[in-house]
Give the backbone structure.
Amino acid sequence: MNAQLAPLSPTRGYVGGGNIAGILGLSPFKSPLDEYLTITNEMPVELSPAKRKFFDRRKALEPFAAECFTQATGLQIVRRNQHYDDAEFEWMKAEIDFETEDGGNGETKTVHPNAVSQWGDPDNDEEPPIYVTAQVMHGLGVTGRQHAWVHALVGLDDDRIYRVERDETLIANIRAHAARFWKYHIEPRRMPQPTTVEDLLRLYQRDSGRAVEADTEIQLALTELHKERQALKLHTTQKELLELQIKKYMRDAATLVCGGISVATWKADTRGIRIFRLR
């Protein structure tokens, strides 16, 4: 064990497990710029009522999720919601959702059934999403433990439980990347470049009304954009013509077969609208 139990600071100013995937550019939810703004508190984000409700509901589900984990694994949870300081970097911390009697960290994720395809099947030795693995490895790096459990609760009755073993090389890479981020962005207060449209909208919520002259690079980008739009229109038109040709051939048929194999369907949905799909 190379970490000390620490109280959670009321201000950010640190890199925690929830920041790692965004810093690495692996998170589907937050960009490096998002994490910079969160850590420095330069642009605080006010939670919408919907997001606040989501976090409150997730918090309320924690005891239920803990009981589900114990029922599924037989392992008792000995601590929940602990915060640790890193032994090497004073600005690095880890928030561990739960800790098990076998000496493991634990991470709980509530997963909407529509998003379950992003999670591998643990029974087939498949892994959780990479952004979750990054968070878990960060926690193992701070606490010094050898393994962690990831408990994905899908809906209310589908438990996906993954055992993640410590990977020294991966942990070292994650910590090195976090250290660079801290040194080159957080300490000098140097924003990372925007990488998404959402980043730009956060920085420039309103237009200024001014005009800006396009340089050579942007002129080339505009030319390419016009080409891509024209190509998209052409492809869309070709797609529609080909679908029409096939539908005219099918007429009232629901299924199109080639050599006895179904290759397309044109069936009515629950609203009575016929939907064309390729197999």
Summary: The longest strand covers residues 77-85.
